[in-house]
Structure formats: C-alpha cells, structure tokens
Backbone:
C-alpha cells in the first residue's frame, strides 16, 4: 500500500521524518493539485494529483536524489548552478555530450580536469538539498511514496542523512502561525527519546539548539527553558519544532500537569480487580 | 451488579459507532443526528452528537459498557464526562485519511490527560487499499513503542474483539506491574 496524502495534512518535514525512522527505500512524488470539488474529512477541498512537481529518492532512510519538474537536474546544469562550470563551458559540454549519462559525463569531466570528484559530489549534494529545502516550504500538494522505485543506475546518487536536513528544513520554516499551531502550549515539557545517544550521533546542532537541549528534563517546561535562555517564544518554538521533528526530543506533560489539562480534575481509574478483567477477557473471547 | 466502562474515541468518521455496533449485544443506543453541515454530509449522513452506547453482559454480576465519543470538536464537552471512571480507552484512527491524524493524536493526548488508564490505538479501515500500514501510522502519530497500535476493520466482529482483548491484556499487565 503506497503512502499517499496531501502535504497540507502531513507535511514534507513529517514525511521525511517518517521515511528516516522507517528506513524506507523508494521515491516520494509530489504533484500539482487538481481541484475535485469534493470535501475531505476536515472539510477542505480534496485535491487530486496533477502534473508531477517534484520527486525525491531515498535508500534505507537516506536522501539520495531530488529533482524539481521545472528545473534541469542533469549534471551539467547542476555543476553550472554550483559555479563549477561557467555558462560557456556548460553550453559546449551540452552540445558535445548530449546523450551521455551523468556518471559517464562526470568521469569525462574529471579526466579532462574540468572538475574534481569532490566538486561533482558537492554540487550534486547541494542540488539535492536545495530541492528538498524548497519543497519543505510547500504547504499544498498531493504526494505518493512508491516503495523501491529508485533513479536509474546512470544517475549520481549522494546519500545524505535526513536528520540534519530535517533540522535545517525546520530552521527555514519561518511562519509564526505554523509554529504556534504546532506548539500552542509552552507549559509542556521535553524528554529525550529512547537511545538518545544513538540519535544524537553525527547530529550538528546550533549553539541555541544545544542551549535548549542542555535543559531537556521532564521537570522543565518549555517556557522555563525559554526564560532561562532569554529566548523569544518564536525562537523556542522553532528550536523545539526542529528537535522534535528530527526525533531528538519528545513533548510530554510536566509532572504537575499530568491529568489536569486546562485545570480539569483528574479522573482516577476505577478500582477494578484483576479477576473482573479476566472475566471480561473470557467473555469477549467467546462472543 | 458491577459495571465497567470502556471508551471508544477518535476523530469524526473514524469508525467508532461501527466498532461498537460490531460487538454490542444490544442495538447500539446512538445519539446520531443527521449532519447539517454540507461539508460533513459528504463524509457521512449522520454523526454522533452525545455518545454511542453498547453493552456486553459477562454474567449476572458483571456488565461491560462501551461508550463512543462524538468525533466533532464542537461536542468535546462530552468527552470528560464520558471518560469519568473508564477502565481503558480505544483511539480509532481512519488509516485512509491522513488529514485526520493530527486530530487523532490530539484526542489521544486529551484522553490520556483525563485519566492514566491503559489505551490502545486501532488503525481502522485496514481492508482498504489506500490505508497507511500500522508501522507508518505509528511514526506518523508518534505512538510510543510500548503502546499497542492494532490493525482494525470496525465492521468485523473478530477484528473488534481482538482490539478489545488487547486493551484488556494491557489493563492486566498494568495491574500486575
């Protein structure tokens, strides 16, 4: 069953997080929206997939390639945009190597001392990241994830860990409303997930993110962390959003607030004996 | 006569009423009303406005009541009332509607806050081609690994039985821990 939906309901950041955590291999396709006139479960207009807008490929949870439908993503264009080939060089190579696949072309260019291997890898990686950072800001568009669909073997694939991409992507999400709606309550606390050491391995955090991470403790509310670090609400929301989307922290209610949202009294669970539950189990088994 | 109560909750149109109908020994006492909103009418004809109520009699001394919550937020004043004294709860999620996942997570957190009782998440409509699988749903909804997320088809009595049994097993585990 392919994963499908709309990025307005399940954002690209959430999708990347899912693909990363599930270690998925395949290609994510995002499409232009075509109006259907029907409503979805939330009352928004249902959108059907139209023309392909972007595709992003993953191998065992790592980003390996990305392209936008309206942007040339062959190697010459990528090197040209990265400043590794000037416009004239790009034009000549395009003419002479019209039907040459990216990998073969890269070898030719390296052998001819146009570029180094490092230039090629760096440019392809930057192109992939630019595409992904771009689509992280999309707020509308049907998507479908096709398992085990990968780019052709002639493409140059550069594996990129998604955690850093997700964090950087989250940094680029500036819309205050989105951050506010994600984290409306600063009186929640943060905790580390299981195996935090494993998750933090190889992660590059900014100074501000480290300052927040250093206060992560179920006893500290986000508001307290914000005050301690002299941050604004937007700054703390942005940092917590990025850390949470990357799976580095989890939101929890602080001990004092458990069971009392909005001042409600906790409703204690009834005192039921185990024998009662055992009788329920027997009855349901025999229905 | 001892009565125990379980709550079946989840977003609008996630299959709560169907779930209770599949297992209740009585015709479900439903407070469904015809939907007045044109948008919601496209999803289903009637919706639960106060609660659904089903019953499973164990013996002369023990009855299990199943309460289904209204899925629309404007009826959420009923939730806390229904949660009072519950033994555990089931959060229904429509696996084919990612636009409702955020709401499902929010409802789950709300009910967790009402009472620290065991719960399971039922990934409904798993018989449909466009359903997200349970592994992907667990990540999408950020469900802890120690919480049961179960495939479910609310129209199937066997499937509903399995969800309720898994919830009861979780309750036993909690009692024994």
Residues:
């Amino acid at each position: 069953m392919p994963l499908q939906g709309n990025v307005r309901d399940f954002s690209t950041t959430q999708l990347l997080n899912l693909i990363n955590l599930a270690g998925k291999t395949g290609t994510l396709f995002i499409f232009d929206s075509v109006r259907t006139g029907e409503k979805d479960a939330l009352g928004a207009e249902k959108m059907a997939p139209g023309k392909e807008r972007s595709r992003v490929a993953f191998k065992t949870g790592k980003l390996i390639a990305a392209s936008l439908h309206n942007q040339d993503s062959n190697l010459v264009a990528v090197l040209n945009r990265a400043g590794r080939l000037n416009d004239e060089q790009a034009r000549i190579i395009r003419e002479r190597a019209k039907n040459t696949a990216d990998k073969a072309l890269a070898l030719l260019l390296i052998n001819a001392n146009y570029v180094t291997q490092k230039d090629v890898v760096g440019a392809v990686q930057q192109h992939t990241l630019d595409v992904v950072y771009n689509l992280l800001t999309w707020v509308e568009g049907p998507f479908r994830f096709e398992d085990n669909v990968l780019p052709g073997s002639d493409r140059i694939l550069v594996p990129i860990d998604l955690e850093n991409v997700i964090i950087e992507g989250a940094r680029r999400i500036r819309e205050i409303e989105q951050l506010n709606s994600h984290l409306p309550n600063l009186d929640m606390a943060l905790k580390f997930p299981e195996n935090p050491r494993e998750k933090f391995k190889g992660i590059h955090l900014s100074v501000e993110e480290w300052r927040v991470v250093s206060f992560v403790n179920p006893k500290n509310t986000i508001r307290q962390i914000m005050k301690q670090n002299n941050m604004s609400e937007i700054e703390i929301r942005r940092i917590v959003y990025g850390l949470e989307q990357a799976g580095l922290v989890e939101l929890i209610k602080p001990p004092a607030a458990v069971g009392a949202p909005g001042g409600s009294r906790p409703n204690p669970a009834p005192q039921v004996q185990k024998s009662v539950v055992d009788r329920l189990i027997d009855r349901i088994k025999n229905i | 006569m001892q009565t125990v109560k379980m709550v079946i909750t989840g977003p609008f149109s996630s299959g709560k009423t169907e779930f209770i109908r599949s297992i209740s020994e009585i015709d479900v006492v439903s407070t469904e009303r015809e939907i007045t909103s044109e948008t919601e009418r496209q999803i289903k004809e009637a919706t639960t406005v106060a609660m659904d109520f089903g019953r499973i009699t164990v013996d002369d001394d023990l009855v299990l009541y199943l309460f289904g919550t209204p899925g629309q937020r404007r009826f959420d004043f009923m939730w806390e009332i229904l949660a009072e004294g519950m033994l555990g709860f089931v959060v229904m999620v429509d696996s084919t509607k990612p636009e409702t996942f955020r709401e499902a997570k929010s409802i789950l957190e709300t009910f967790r806050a009402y009472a620290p009782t065991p719960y399971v998440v039922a990934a409904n409509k798993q018989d449909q081609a466009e359903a997200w699988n349970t592994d992907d749903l667990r990540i999408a909804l950020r469900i802890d690994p120690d919480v049961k997320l179960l495939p479910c088809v609310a129209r199937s009595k066997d499937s509903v039985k399995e969800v309720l049994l898994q919830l009861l097993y979780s309750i036993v585990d909690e009692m024994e821990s």
Q: What stands out?
A: The first strand of chain A starts at residue 3 and ends at 6. The CA atoms of residues 33 and 141 of chain A lie 5 Å apart. Confidence is low (pLDDT under 50) at residues 257-266 of chain A.
